[in-house]
Amino acid sequence: MTTTATQLKHDVRDLALATQGRQRIEWAGREMPVLRQIQERFAQTKPLAGVRLTACCHVTTETAHLAIALKNGGADALLIASNPLSTQDDVAASLVADYGVPVFAMKGEDNATYLRHVQTALDHRPNIIIDDGSDVVATLVKERQHQLSDIIGTTEETTTGIVRLKAMFNDGVLSFPAMNVNDADTKHFFDNRYGTGQSTLDGIIRATNVLLAGKTVVVAGYGWCGKGVALRARGMGANVIVTEINPVRAIEAVMDGFRVMPMAEAAPLGNLFVTVTGNKHVIRKEHFEVMKDGAMVCNSGHFDIEIDLKALKQMATEVKQVRDFTEQYCLSSGKSVIVLGEGRLVNLAAAEGHPSAVMDMSFANQALACEYLVTQRGSLTPGLHSVPEEVDQEIARLKLKALGLTVDSLTPEQEIYINSWTVGTE
């Protein structure tokens, strides 16, 4: 931990990277018109004035614009990384040096450093926590009970984090409101499907430079992220197999034209495996044992537990790095399994994450959810709350406006019709 000339505490790789980071932040801003409009309004109205805010996010060029919006809104904001491999070091440096945001994040930080940064985030004594996976909230609940009275609320934008928050609430330990940003339409329809779909394949291709056309790609999970990955893989000529535990999603995948089968049946067939379930050990020992020689496995779910790497390491006679973010596990059978991005989010470990255009809407939701928590302080009950529909609609309208598009509006006659039960067949 060091102190800059501006007296900002931080823990970043190298402040000399700030110039490059600022250029990349400015470039990303070209594709983020919705958040830019929120930044401008926040600068005038200061809805977060006096609020201490901790954000645990992937430290990318897009996240930088969220941090700027929060600071413009008057928040005393601090940023840590939500994943050890997702930080862009030049962006972290620029946020400290150019934008005055305390950042504690380095690409490749070990678990001890990550956990120390979580404690730093809580040392900030936040009133609002923006979380990505709910590690900060979980640590607060388990270890910092005396700080619960400081909390106005939290916002969460990952499926994994929402699952954890629901479990906390069911166990009676979530004593404050949590905004479910993940399920906002302008988040999951676009970020999860189009963002994850494109950026996951981008990470895979950057790490391996393989041709996907003609390959058999196994996608574990057919939620919005899985839909996006399957769609993009098929678009690049891959033969896609989907594995699922949810029968409704399995039928949907079949109707969308994909083969559906259990992982045990897919394991001998796949050339590339992508997990996007949010669950633990989706690919494990019995699957590695029957995979083709050279099969590649990667994860695009939040935590690095979807692939049972501990079991794979025990099976391996040798592990060697063959490319950046690409490790070959040589097995006693003579076959090998290739792991991308250490089993962490491959789109951030080996690439740059989601395109700015989709993160524009996701982070607009985050910023407005924070504002909502402040304006509704004292009136929201503990537990999960949806982003208000009017906020979702406003973000969509702003995005359409930025794209130069307009939509139809109801005529007075149509308004009467859809709100009436007396008018039917004429």
Automatic annotation (TrEMBL):
Identify which top EC class this enzyme belongs to.
hydrolase
Q: Does the keyword Cytoplasm apply?
A: yes
Report the record's Gene Ontology biological process terms: L-homocysteine biosynthetic process; one-carbon metabolic process; S-adenosylmethionine cycle
Where substrate is bound, by residue? 60, 132, 157, 187, 191
Domain of life, per UniProt, equals Bacteria
Q: Where does the protein principally reside?
A: cytoplasm
Q: Which reaction does it catalyse?
A: S-adenosyl-L-homocysteine + H2O = L-homocysteine + adenosine
Functional summary from the UniProt entry: May play a key role in the regulation of the intracellular concentration of adenosylhomocysteine.
- Gene3D superfamilies hit by this protein: Adenosylhomocysteinase-like, NAD(P)-binding Rossmann-like Domain
Q: Name the pathway it acts in.
A: Amino-acid biosynthesis; L-homocysteine biosynthesis; L-homocysteine from S-adenosyl-L-homocysteine: step 1/1
Protein known as: Adenosylhomocysteinase
Positions that bind NAD(+): 158-160, 192, 221-228, 244, 279, 300-302, 347, 354
In which family does this protein belong, per the annotation? Belongs to the adenosylhomocysteinase family.
Q: What's the Enzyme Commission number for this chain?
A: 3.13.2.1
Could you say which cofactors this protein requires? NAD(+)
Quote one Gene Ontology molecular function term.
adenosylhomocysteinase activity
Q: Which gene encodes it?
A: ahcY
Q: How is the cofactor bound?
A: Binds 1 NAD(+) per subunit.
**Gene Ontology CC entries for this record:** cytosol
Keyword list (alphabetical) reads:
Cytoplasm, Hydrolase, NAD, One-carbon metabolism
S-adenosyl-L-homocysteine hydrolase NAD binding domain span:
192-353
Annotated compartments: Cytoplasm
One family from Pfam that matches here is: AdoHcyase_NAD
